[in-house]
Amino acid sequence: ERDFSLENQRKLKTDLFIFQETMYIEENTYKNDMISLIFLLKEKVGALAKVLRIFEEKSINLTHIESRPSRVNKDEYEFFINLDRRNTPLLTDIIKTLRNEMGVTVHELSRKKKKDAVPWFPRTIQELDRFANQILSYGAELDADHPGFKDPVYRARRKEFADMAYNYRHGQPIPKVTYTEEEKKTWGTVFRELKTLYPTHACYEHNHVFPLLEKYCGYQEDNIPQLEDVSKFLQTCTGFRLRPVAGLLSSRDFLAGLAFRVFHSTQYIRHGSKPMYTPEPDVCHELLGHVPLFADISFAQFSQEIGLASLGAPDEYIEKLATVYWFTVEFGLCKEGDTIKAYGAGLLSSFGELQYCLSDKPEIQSLNLEKTAVQKYPVTEFQPVYYVAESYLKRNSCFHKSFCLFSFRRFASSIPRPFSIRYDPYTQRIEVLDNAKQLKNLAESISSEMGTLCSALKKIE
Ligand SMILES: [Fe+2]
């Protein structure tokens, strides 16, 4: 009898990860004169012979072959083979034949040069658990100029939050926090002040969602909303979810979360001595700045696409993507008719900067991703430059429905990556589209959606 308990599912998933990681082994772990491949075959009489014949036809001699039952599919076998490096020129054709004509999944283990190795990236939403212990600084370590640096009570509290996030695993409810009176007071000040600016300064989407958060998620002056409630709300809107984070993540890890529609969120609040200032993201920044926009379908899509573009991308492109994220998701402005509004979370959670960004002091430029992606920026002071996303639509619609998503796709297509990927929301896995079988599945799913679209169009005629 099969055991579907959570623990067992996790174990099963772990087995899958081990397999997937073997896909990118660096060249120097193998002998230099050798090429290694793994391919998967369905258990069938003559299946292996058919594959071997292809090598034989090209007069390629295999120096080593071994097999094992696949850990992914029960009815498949994995074959590991070695061949002489001199055969490299012929190999591309052979792999093409295997993939396209026979639908065989092939993993090249050592043919690629080291410099082309693709950085590891999570393939399943559960694998985001790995980032929990890859944080750059633990939440309790504060810089000397942090308002809470000399406050032992605040530091102990930060440690509590950091530990909670550190031990969090995907699938668990986010622990609810009983915030202290002082913490609630800090929240209240920030909430009250910012709320006076939103009607005039925030974009349409933010103002549209905010009352819903007040109604369903406990957004009130005297209550700090719980991440778990907010995460559930977002899941019903766009499938976005929150996960607590113990400290600062690297750009690569943070962006990877977005690919799964997961937003790493802090849960602690800034120091009470300076309610209008925080040198780092805190729960006010996440809940007031980020959350409302993640409830918007177009914005959620845009955010996820930044994440998807980052998976396996070279380091220099991660930096560019993080910069694009900075000038859009964090500090973006957009045009609504003739007026400019803020949609960036860094602006929507800062009383001072929200006013400053729409004044005549900063420099305002049109969003142009190629240019924006290399713009330098300060992290501890108001931005000297903001980028405005133009809207092609005349009415009150924000940027993503028109400008941002299209231009981002064009930008993302310039990122070198030797394969295409796609997120499967049913399995919550990233699919690497590198064989005929997967492409066929994708075609079928698009075809089914097209059928639905055509039939719906006919009905509303
Ligand atoms: Fe942020």
From TrEMBL:
It catalyses: (6R)-L-erythro-5,6,7,8-tetrahydrobiopterin + L-phenylalanine + O2 = (4aS,6R)-4a-hydroxy-L-erythro-5,6,7,8-tetrahydrobiopterin + L-tyrosine. Residues 106-461 form the Biopterin-dependent aromatic amino acid hydroxylase family profile domain. Signal peptide: none annotated. Fe cation binds at H285, H290, E330. CDD domains: ACT_PAH, eu_PheOH. Homodimer and homotetramer. The keyword Cell cycle does not apply. GO terms for molecular function: iron ion binding; phenylalanine 4-monooxygenase activity. SUPFAM superfamilies: ACT-like, Aromatic aminoacid monoxygenases, catalytic and oligomerization domains. Pathway: Amino-acid degradation; L-phenylalanine degradation; acetoacetate and fumarate from L-phenylalanine: step 1/6. Belongs to the biopterin-dependent aromatic amino acid hydroxylase family. It is an enzyme of class 1 (oxidoreductase). This is Phenylalanine-4-hydroxylase. Its EC number is 1.14.16.1. Its cofactor is Fe(2+). The gene is PAH. Keywords: Allosteric enzyme, Iron, Metal-binding, Monooxygenase, Oxidoreductase, Phenylalanine catabolism, Phosphoprotein. InterPro entries: ACT-like_dom_sf, ACT_dom, ArAA_hydroxylase, ArAA_hydroxylase_Fe/CU_BS, ArAA_hydroxylase_sf, Aro-AA_hydroxylase_C_sf, Aromatic-AA_hydroxylase_C, Euk_PheOH_cat. GO terms for biological process: L-phenylalanine catabolic process. Catalyzes the hydroxylation of L-phenylalanine to L-tyrosine. Residues 36-112 form the ACT domain.
